[in-house]
Amino acid sequence: MSAADGNGALLEVRDLVKHFPVRRGLLRRQVGAVQALDGISLEIRRGETLGLVGESGSGKSTAARTILRLLEATSGQVVFDGEDITAASKHALRGIRPRMQMVFQDPYASLNPRKTAGSTVIEALEVNRIGTASDRRRRVDELFELVGLSPRLRNRYPHEFSGGQRQRIGIARALATEPRFVIADEAISALDVSIQAQIVNLLDDLKQQLELTYLFISHDVSMVRHISDRIAVLYLGKVAELGTSRDVWERPLHPYTLALLSAVPVPDPVRESQRERIVLPGDPPDPADPPSGCRFHTRCAFATDICHTDEPTLRDLGTPQAPHIVACHHAERVRGSHGNGKEIIP
Amino acid sequence: MSAPLLEVSKLAVRFDTDEGSVHAVNDVSFTLEQGEALGIVGESGSGKSVTALSIMGLVPTPPGHIEAGSIRFRERELLGAPERELRGIRGREIAMIYQDPMTSLNPALPVGRQLSEIVRHHLGLDRREALERASELLALVGIPNAGGRLGDHPHQFSGGQRQRILIAMALSCDPAVLIADEPTTALDVTVQAQIVELVKELRDRLGMAIVWITHDLGVVAGLVDKIAVMYSGYVVEQAPVRELFAQPGHPYTVGLLRSLPTFGGERRRLTPIPGSPPDLSRRVDACPFAPRCDWVIDRCREEFPDLADVAPDHGAACHRRDEVRDASALVDATP
To answer: What is the pLDDT of residues A68-123, one digit of tens each?
Structure first.
């Protein structure tokens, strides 16, 4: 599924693998401590938002960090705008980094409490040697206005801002270097519900205005669906399913996606009472010791003998215009299993 | 009609900080009948967790002070009751589970011992009986091979399993009321679904009443009988669950529902609530939601709206409650 360069892909991830050294013994079962990618391939087209969903241990955050080369890949390639990031020299990376930025989950933890909001943003410009001192000050005002903050607030410290305002500062900092590509890693998860919508709308507006491309990572499946053009579902370090938002949400092909969607709570008591929930048995397996064959077979209602032994390859069951890729031996059965009777998908 | 199982009335809790007093809970009242499930929905700083801690007698004093109100359980007043009397109620008749299971479990002790100590303490069982009960409880909450895992420490369980263990602890003395404070917030969505289904099933089986505290309207929609929406330390709306979602009478509730993405159909732009949550250190004689409200009129900035009925069993603390409810019934407020 790796496409030729120049067909609109801004970022291509080819067979990306990230293995962490595993410590056995006491730490073995700690959820979230061991995260790995085991050969994921995807592309992000210019101007699109690709949503990445999956649970703790699925590899979402590892993917983000390996794509930005904050972590070194074990193997595989990340190609950004034609340049191989995984092989780039330190010097070359310095030229690429400003074009790829990240907005983090926790605006409380990612801002220096001793730095004013303005100097946090200026720092991003200084580090990348952008502009003169007076250019930078002007640019900070612009950036503040861009993210909906009054430039008068630039001399305030992080604790003087609300959670939503702090996330706006985090976004201003990410946009300071005029990136083409922004990874939002759980960027709204720590915010109150009424503020999440403000930030999602802001990200949407900025994308239009600045022609940005996003990788939007979240465990909130309904928000991912809202903001994304396409969605990739990760399970234990592998892509389980990848397709347009609409296809993945309305016509899921992977049993894990189906379970994930069935678990999304719907804020409507009448519909909730009519829904069927697929409760997955047990817990996600240890990523240090993934199951044989299909990694999902230990929790899957569709699993047969082949799933225990043969790892499913990625198959395209979509259309040429809208590929819909799935790694499941029984995708056709999954597709036929919903839509009748009780509502599974919200 | 007999008195409710749990009755909180006109509860007010204040915290004194270096920067002044914070009025965390103001004039909060609700009742809970035997076997009933109440959802308390609110954002950070809304006072929902402090309300729960007050019922459990766990408000740290100082800096916290229960300024006014009453909390009656089986017609007995809990506020100001002697500690000895309370010890027989809290943990035994009213049990609580918290958001982060790791902070509520002792990492150094096997879970079997933590569970059996509770039942020995409250139910006076001997060591062997208590371990048997611990194993039953772990099985009840769906821990596979429960008997074989009594010797395991908390870190040997997954996040979802640890939350199950906490539920087992809470249920160990067969409580009449289970208070759950954001028990699924730290969990993945499929694990959250497991826990919600477990609590529903246990409620049907054991008949306990539930107070489920959350910021997520979706989680409680299918779980509770009625909902209290809190904002700025006040209950701003209270209604049976279906009524609340179908015809909310407070602009904040309407705003919360509209700020969620739609389910099914075409994607539409989200409608956020403008502004930020209020500063609780300033108490003004006005509607706390007024600065963020689409429906605001002069009266809202001058006079505090009481929680008054907009329909049977449906209260809203809004001067324009009737208009808001009528309007929310016309447009589909739920996503």
So the answer is: 999 999 999 999 999 999 999 999 998 898 999 999 887 667 788 889 999 999 99
- pLDDT given for residue A1 in this prediction: 40
Measured between CB atoms, does B272 come within 8 Å of chain A? yes
Same domain, A93 and A217: yes
Cβ atoms of B307 and B275 within 8 Å: the answer is no
Do A53 and A98 fall into the same domain?
yes
Which segments of chain A are extended strands (E)? 9-18, 37-45, 49-53, 75-80, 83-84, 100-103, 181-185, 213-217, 230-235, 238-244, 315-316, 325-326
| CB of B221 less than 8 A from some CB of A | yes
| CA nearest neighbour of A193 among B267, B252, B178 | B252
B281 in contact with A at a CB cutoff of 8 Å? no
Task: Please report residues of A whose CB lies closer than 8 A to that of B219.
Answer: 265
Q: What's at B62, amino acid-wise?
A: P
Give residues 84 to 113 of A whose Cβ lies within 8 Å of B: none
* Within a domain: A2: no
Last residue of a domain, one of A186, A204, A235: A235
Same domain, A280 and A231: no
Token pair of B321 as six digits: 């409650």
Cα angle B56, B59, B60; round to 5: 135
Q: Does A279 sit within 8 Å of B197, measured CB to CB?
A: yes
Looking at the predicted structure, is the pLDDT value of residue A35 above 60? no
Task: Report cis status (omega within 30 of 0) of the bond before A323.
Answer: no
Averages of pLDDT over runs of 10 residues in chain B (335 residues) are 89 90 93 96 92 90 91 93 86 85 82 90 86 89 87 87 88 90 81 86 90 92 96 96 95 93 80 86 85 95 94 96 88 50
User: Are residues A56 and A158 part of one domain?
Assistant: yes
Q: How many domains does chain A have?
A: 2
Do A164 and A100 share a structural domain?
Answer: yes
Q: Which of A179, A206, A235 is the last residue of a domain?
A: A235
Decide if B194 and A219 are in contact by the 8 Å CB cutoff. no
Tell me, yes or no, whether A260 and A211 share the same domain.
no
Burial A73-111 (b: 16+ CB within 10 A, else e): beebbbbbbeeebbebeeeeeeebbbbbbbbbbbbeebb
Say yes or no: A56 and A171 in one domain.
yes
The verdict on A220 and A257 lying in the same domain is no
CB atoms B221 and A263 under 8 Å: no
Domain encompassing residue A111: 47-73+84-235
Considering the domain boundaries, does residue A93 fall inside one?
yes
Q: Is A225 on the interface with B (CB under 8 A)?
A: yes
